[in-house]
Design brief:
About 60% of the residues lie in helices and about 5% in strands. The strands form three sheets. The chain has a two-stranded antiparallel sheet. α9 runs antiparallel to α23. The longest helix is centred in the middle third of the chain and has 52 residues. The radius of gyration is 31 Å and the shape is globular.
Length: about 725
């Protein structure tokens, strides 16, 4: 038999092939033809091989232009609308300044460790969420698909909110602002104020009737709202253009979209502090109610806010970090971004309550003026004696202190008759205690406050431009959480996939710009993300800590960072964080079970909100949202466990471990970047045929990816290597 066609047979054992030199040790030394072929044989230390492979992989994958651009991208993704309209509400509702303590504790216990974990796996494996979790364990590969599904659900309605912001932004270039006064209605005989507006307020009427033109229930579609449809289209066009080139295009926009909100918040804070009543709002905000810290509900809501504020489980964090160099200090990034997020929430809270304090002061002055007129009327009618009114008080120009003094005197003297007088105490705290969040804060309370600002159109333009930028920063991360893993897995062109994704999302998103669309936004917000994301992050924690092994993961971090992370993270990832996440999941399920599923509908005749339960089909949709979001996890597990799909098809990324090392099959260009040698039993395997240039360097072939245990593969490309057995995970 000619030497060039000689077959070398070697028994496969449980030891990892460390280099090509090991594999060639049994080859005949006279085989010059084979040894002169274009082999990738590195006789240096494995560390040298690692460096070479790492540089090749990094050259292939796009990278951030600078560390600042990357940090701004992560900050833009984590700092979103929730920091402005959710955190201040929770802070006021759950004990004011006392709420900050449980929030900080849970940020250290849940937030930073899990944020660090996602940054680490993304940077280490350099893949999107699908490739990362397939890389760690094929049976848990559904985690990445679940993240993509949740990202898609959230993107559907989140961009609708950006569309609302664009609508208000476009309407802010008017003096006076269109929501400043109630509209007048003319008929044949006379002119009168719109009844729906008169019963509520100008900003409330404008939001529900002019902007949303809302129906009375989720069952009444009412057709498309063309104004909001155009705004939604504009929002998706902006997102598509920004994301079409990946981080090369979105990264440049981050300089504006991530920094501009801070400029606006600081300007708002300075302006608000110069207005009457702003200090009252801030004082009310940060007055601690320590007794509330003992309530479990406060800790549950703080944990939920920490969880969603950092964008855990969406895949955006993993996607952004996958474009980093492997020696990047992601621990520093995790701590920095987490605390920037926290201080942004505190800054937004200061701004919100400084502005709401000013608004409460304006409303309180009107209240005092109206009630003072009523007291003067009662004095003239003789219902109240002039003798009980202190002589130094002039009711025509009464101050808040003097009014409260008169109010207390009348209440004591007219103890039995006082309720019939219908006088209001006009306490500024009563107005500040009317907690609002979400759209109620941004599009009603805050817009009303801005109508009292000098140069109100300017501040309205700034505010809604800030909201749009906050939303876009989060949208970029959310879309990246879809695009990156799908491109990594199925080798699609990023430009085509981005256009398809945005076009499909716009078409589905039309349900949110019906007249009943606001109710669907509430449904998706309540049911499409909360429980699925909690389950996803729990499984991420389990995959790293128990399936892969926390000890090996700590070694990986030491190899990647150049220093060993504090043992604090070891105990957090292995014991504390899983227990806390499970507790949070149970508490969320219990809370969801105790809260009747429904929504607040706007009733036109009453000009007020009314809680309505979802119809039967609405309940089915709610359940489907949760099931579809988490379905990929058990589906992929069953497929892997039962071998229902031939792994060689490349439809699902797969990995094969040999004692902690990962082998990759680069010729499968149609599969996942993380697709590795697929598993077969040893009896099905043939011996390597050297005559087919098994180890020849293939031009245009992908380079080896890194193994997740701190080493970078086995040191050579495998073009036609038969499948190797998959070990038990």
């Amino acid at each position: 038999m000619p030497k060039n066609s000689k077959v070398v047979k070697r028994e496969l054992d449980d030891e990892v092939i460390e280099s090509v030199k090991d594999l060639l040790s049994n080859e005949d030394s006279a085989d010059d033809a084979f040894k002169k072929s274009e082999l990738i044989v590195d006789v240096q230390e494995e560390k040298d091989i690692d460096v070479e492979e790492e540089s090749e992989v990094e050259d292939e994958r796009p990278a951030w232009n600078s560390k600042l651009q990357y940090i701004l991208a992560q900050v833009g993704f984590s700092v979103g609308l929730g920091n402005v309209w959710r955190f201040p509400y929770l802070c006021q509702k759950n004990g004011g300044g006392a709420y900050l303590l449980p929030y900080l504790i849970l940020l250290l216990v849940i937030g930073i460790p899990l944020f660090f974990l996602e940054l680490s796996v993304g940077q280490r494996i350099r893949r999107g969420s699908i490739g990362v979790w397939n890389y760690i364990s094929p049976k848990l590969g559904g985690i990445g698909f679940a993240s993509c599904v949740v990202c898609f659900f959230v993107a559907l309605y989140y961009n609708v909110i950006i569309g609302w912001g664009l609508f208000y932004f476009s309407q802010s270039f008017q003096q006076p602002l269109p929501w400043d006064q109630c509209p007048l209605v003319k008929n044949a005989s006379h002119t009168f104020v719109e009844p729906e507006c008169e019963k509520s307020s100008a900003t409330t009427y404008y939001w529900y009737r002019e902007a949303l033109n809302i129906s009375s229930s989720i069952s009444e579609s009412g057709g498309l709202n063309w104004k909001m449809t155009i705004c939604l289209l504009a929002a998706w066009v902006v997102v598509c253009l920004a994301m079409i080139k990946g981080i090369q295009s979105s990264g440049k926009i981050m300089y504006f979209s991530s920094l501009f909100p801070y400029v606006v918040l600081i300007c708002f804070l300075i302006r608000a502090l110069l207005l009457n009543g702003s200090i009252d709002g801030i004082r009310h905000m940060f007055t601690p109610k320590l007794e509330m810290m003992l309530e479990p509900k406060v800790w549950r809501e703080a944990a939920t806010q920490v969880f969603f504020a950092l964008g855990l489980g969406f895949g955006g964090v993993i996607a952004f970090s996958s474009y980093n160099k492997r020696d990047n200090n992601c621990h520093f990034d995790a701590v920095l971004v987490s605390f920037i997020n926290f201080f942004t929430s505190v800054l937004a809270t200061l701004v919100v309550f400084a502005v709401l304090g000013f608004k409460a002061n304006v409303i309180n002055e009107k209240c005092i003026a109206e009630n003072s007129k009523m007291i003067v009327k009662f004095l003239r009618m003789g219902n109240i004696s002039q003798d009980i009114i202190p002589h130094h008080i002039n009711l025509s120009t009464v101050t808040a202190e003097d009014y409260h003094l008169v109010y207390d005197i009348i209440q004591k003297v007219k103890e039995e008759e006082f309720p019939a007088l219908h006088l209001n105490s006009c306490q500024i705290e009563d107005e500040l205690n009317k907690a609002v969040q979400g759209t109620g804060l941004a599009f009603i309370a805050f817009t009303e406050a801005m109508t009292h600002f000098p140069a109100s159109p300017f501040w309205s333009v700034m505010f809604f431009l800030m909201l749009v930028n906050l939303g876009l920063g989060s949208m970029f991360g959310t879309i990246e959480g879809i695009i990156t893993p799908v491109v990594d897995t199925f080798k699609m062109r990023k430009e085509i996939l981005t256009v398809i994704c945005c076009l499909l999302a716009f078409c589905i998103g039309l349900i949110f710009v019906q007249r009943s669309g606001n109710y669907f936004v509430t449904m998706f917000d309540d049911y499409s993300a909360t429980l699925p994301l909690l389950i996803v992050v729990i499984l991420e924690n389990i995959a790293v800590s128990f399936v892969y092994g926390i000890d090996k993961f700590m070694e990986d971090l030491k190899d990647m960072l150049g220093f060993a992370p504090n043992r604090y993270y070891y105990y957090m990832w292995k014991y504390i964080s899983p227990l806390m996440l499970l507790s949070l999941l149970i508490a969320s399920v219990v809370n969801m079970g105790l809260s009747p599923p429904g929504y607040n509908a706007w009733i036109e005749d009453k000009a007020s909100e009314e809680f309505l339960s979802y119809p039967t089909w609405g309940m089915v949709v709610c359940i489907l949202l949760m099931v579809l979001a988490i379905l990929p996890v058990p589906a992929v597990f069953v497929i892997r466990r039962c071998n229902l799909i031939d792994n060689s098809s490349g439809n699902l990324a797969s990995v094969t471990y040999k004692r902690g090392r990962v082998l990759k099959e680069p010729v499968n260009l149609e599969g996942d970047d993380a697709s590795l040698i697929h598993g077969k039993i040893p009896s099905e395997m043939s011996s390597p045929n050297f005559g087919k240039n098994i180890y020849r360097k293939q031009s245009g072939s992908p380079t080896l990816d890194t193994a997740p245990n701190g080493r970078y593969g086995i040191g050579y490309l495998m073009a036609d290597m038969p499948d190797m057995p998959e070990s038990d995970l």
